[in-house]
Amino acid sequence: MIKELPNWKYDYFISQLHRTAYKKHESFIINSLLHDVRLIDLKPSTQHYVKRNDDSGQYALLDLYYPQINFAIEIDEPHHNEVQDSKRQAEVEKKISADFRRIVIKEGNILQQVEALKAALLAKADQIKSASQWKEWEEPKNVDIHELKGMFKHALFVKIKGDIHPEHLMG
Asked: What pTM value is reported for the model?
């Protein structure tokens, strides 16, 4: 029996896929992961921001990150530089101590690499669940605009995604 995909989760998946629209290999692989019903309860974060070095202000954008299981995925497209990628990975691993996996396009066997990745994701999720450390991915709560203003009174701007209804702005 196929589990139903709630609208809020569908909308989230679409927004995550949109971030990979111009990266053909990354888009193909992430689509494969998001369409696997066995992985539907894992919250994906594409182009996930990780600060690299406290002094320089440099950052890395992970191709895909699953925060519930602390699992990072990089898709090495043909133009990637292995030396730079290794250095970047070492810095990111120091920051977030994640399980770090790569799909290497030049190696071929993409479907086999993706299936091995799926198996690793499922195993890690099972491990977290069996240790009673699992955090369900829940529908985002509605935020009151006035409460938001109070929380961010010193911010220059706040980016809000999703549906904004006029009745939520009045008051």
From this structure: 0.82
